[in-house]
Design brief:
Blueprint (H helix, E strand, L loop, with lengths): L1 H12 L7 E3 L4 E2 L5 E2 L4 E3 L2 H5 L19 H4 L13 H18 L1
Antiparallel strand pairs: 1-4, 2-3
Helix pairs in contact: 1-4
Length: 105
Amino acid sequence: MRLNMTSQEMQRNHSPSYQPGRTAQKDLIVPGGLRMRKGEIIIAALHHIHNNPKVWENPGRFDLDRWDTEAVKKRGRTDYIPYVTKQELASDTLQESIQHCAQIS
């Protein structure tokens, strides 16, 4: 459990993905009123998403325990975007990397 929270907090603070691009699947208006047309590229600024004080209490603090709070459990699905689509896969992949590094050292 603590290893999973560690990997999530590490990814929230220091995302291994550099602003992933996505293609709009339909015409839409994003928060702030920007109109996106189907087929246009959307680039998420992960650092800003993961450090939004409206979503994350004290976002600059490295806090493993935040992942076991009701606020985080109820967050929106776009408030935390790990480096792959499924959070579980991201955590498992990072945990495997950590375990591999531990075996080497």
